[in-house]
């Protein structure tokens, strides 16, 4: 998997499949705190609410990784979180499409 060095990451609905993860690895600039924010859209560019975003911190030296948080996109498909950038750290985002559950009401 390629590691991105960019100011933004676009996650398209065509990348999201229900029940399957979509993962992006990226490097962030050296600052005291770095805020990562984004919007998840469907194929028609409508925001996707309740998409799950998992944030994983990876130590480039030791190779160790750990989940540092899970968040959900809001009703506008937006999400944001802050990380502390350090030379030895990379971050990976995995986005999951919202789980759609259909309930039937009434008697059988």
From TrEMBL:
It comes from the Bacteria. SUPFAM superfamilies: Carboxypeptidase regulatory domain-like (SSF49464). This is Carboxypeptidase regulatory-like domain-containing protein. It comes from Romboutsia sedimentorum.
